[in-house]
Amino acid sequence: MRGAPVKTLQRVPLFTDLNKREVQQIARLFKERRFSEGETVVKEGSGGAAFFVIESGEATVFIRGKAHTTLKPGDYFGEIALIDQGTRMATIIASSELVCYGVTFWDFRPLVEANGLIGWKLLQRMAKMLRDARGD
Q: For residue 67, what is the enclosing H or E element?
């Protein structure tokens, strides 16, 4: 299946400044991914190049080997990987059957390069998220 639900993506903070048409363009890039219970979705320290939004199921976030939190439908992870392809900051393991929508850096980047307005809105949102995280 190709494409993620627009309503799901509109709830992702990175995309909140985009209008519906812009989110629809991004939504078409997503592909459905399924993971079995116990399967590692991403591994801390490995290269990151994909962003995921959970459709159904749950996953556990591990940081330095310790369980940190549980992700549920509507939660997301890997948004920084869409921008910088840096190493993963956590390990995500499916704690049940997990269905996600995922998009890779390689699919996402051409859309942003071709649409400066989307790129600018994403850049502004990332700056706001950084300021909020730092308490500025």
A: strand 66-71
